[in-house]
Fold this sequence. Notes:
Blueprint: H1 6-11, E1 34-36, E2 42-45, E3 52-54
Antiparallel strand pairs: 1-2, 2-3
Amino acid sequence: MLFCCEKLKAETKKYRPPAGGGFLSSSPNPTGQIEQEEDGSWNVNGCCGDCYVLTDLLFCPFCGAKLP
């Protein structure tokens, strides 16, 4: 997978707890803060990985490049 910027690459890797974390330590964590679905769409995970807070991103939230 090609990434438009290092920040997007970092955020699609291993999940880092949100700031002030620890409150949801018993909840399953998503694999990355930003994930690409099998259909090619890009989504931003919620805090525990059970929902998406943003779906079908068209542009990188860090550098503004159009996502594939």
